Amino acid sequence: MATDMSPHPSRGSWSTVFTAERPRPEGIRSRPNAWWLAVGTVCFGAFMGQLDASIVTLTYGSLGTEFHASLAAVEWVSLAYLLTLVALLVPAGRLADAHGRKLLYLYGFAVFTLASAACGLAPSLLALVAFRVVQAAGAAMMQANSVALVTTSAPRERMRSALGVQAAAQALGLALGPTVGGALVSTLGWRWVFWVNVPVGLIALVGGHYLLPRTRARTAVARFDWAGLGLLAAATTSALMGVSAASGLAVTGWGVALLFLLAAGAGWGFVRRQQRAAVPLLDLALLRRRTVAFGLVGALSGYLVLFGPLVLVPVVLTTRGSSDLTAGLVLTALPAGFALAATGGDRLLPGRLPDRGRCLAGACVFTLAVAALLVVPLTISWLVPVLALTGLGLGTFTPANNTMIMGAIPARVSGTGGGLVNMTRGLGTALGVALVALALHLVSGGDVQAGARWAAAVLVAASAVAVASAWPSPGRAPRASQATH
For residue 214, what pLDDT band results from cuts at 50, 70 and 90? Predict the structure, then answer.
């Protein structure tokens, strides 16, 4: 169980009021289940993040009408947020390892909440995009620390259960997004899609102040690697913009190629910088650990499979005459299955089954499920069970995958590790959306059904990568990950 072991800040010093983590009240700190209170607090952020991810796309029509903007322009409301989030996750985790994960998490919630209110008041599309960038900066501080706070709060033997609850909170936000977003936009207007974050954020700020433990192990940062941050931001931004441009944006083929070349060059420069920097942004030694490297590949593949159907299913169903509400209800089967497996998997699977075995079992289940999309009719009666089975597999895979990764990372750099996990989640999310859109876009003649089969093939390929990431090394039996904190 986590305890607040760092020195108490001076209560009379104004210099520490906003720069030091405050201890939990003794009555909370001494409770046997105090770690569950911390996990529950983190779930607010997990819920908000996925709710925001799945709710904003429903505002595109209203934004285009109010601001007289094209769809390509309106898409930057999501794209700017995603690009900023992915670029800042690792540096936010690095800063949290040095200055305190609770501190950065609460500041992130404050920034996210204030920026959400500003988004709801935006007088123009340009202002809305700018406020979304600020909102993403706050989300990066939250998400970079969410996994670290869960794993450093929960007892080692309960880590997988705690991560499962967090994953279920994400799935709940994802499931409610289409329904809540549709209801808000059609009744109160698009601005309430952003204002709905404000009351949840205020509750989470108060809860985090009293319920989250202070950081026990830190890694001092003599100076920040700004050059590394710039190269990482350039690499991730160029790569995601290249995939998005190839998916149908008004960018020439040369422009797309240039974006990918820039991504490759910046990525190479980032690796070289991290190898030579006295204080690197990312310790590449972490990625030389097989469990971490393969686990991150699996996490990216899993989130690609999770978010790909969010684009595919509505396109397929609405083309056949179904309403947006019907498509949203069908999609709910995916996060519902995810939440069920993430919270109940420990009760259904043998307790002695190690994390790698759980990963492999879950990956095999969702691989078979998405493979079914290649052959079954893409109708509601088939899509609901296929999506539910996909969710069950992902809900089994994701908590065990995250447990293996975080169990192989030292506690003193758990913020950096959490940032890596969430960065791969963000990349997987973006690739799931962009690659499915690309598959639908590249099919000639606008044949949505043929495009859907190609999109399903993309999901099968990603699932196969997830299976490979969980496969035991030759001559080496799988074993449960061991936490180092």
Answer: low
